[in-house]
Specification:
Number of strands: 0
Strand content: under 5%
Helix content: 55-70%
Structural class: mainly alpha
């Protein structure tokens, strides 16, 4: 397709989509997750959609709330 770079490997899910999948797998709504993180539901939605980037302190908090490693959220390791 013109204007798009060819990728030699399969595209990986975004950090936001992995975060949303892990959260949903644990049965945690955006509202509940937001409360546990101390942010708004809109902020969680922005993380899920990749609109907002995760800061290191927020990533650490997310790992604690979800009980997963940062590597899993970042896609460096499977759960």
């Amino acid at each position: 397709m013109p204007g798009r770079a060819a990728h030699s490997r399969e595209e990986l899910p975004s950090i936001g989509s992995r975060l949303a999948e892990i959260r949903k797998d644990r049965g945690i709504s955006q509202v509940e997750f937001a409360q546990r993180l101390g942010v708004t539901q809109a902020a969680v939605s922005d993380y899920d959609r990749g609109v907002s980037r995760l800061t290191a302190p927020m990533l650490l908090r997310i790992t604690q709330v979800l009980g997963v490693s940062a590597d899993e959220i970042l896609g460096l390791k499977n759960g």
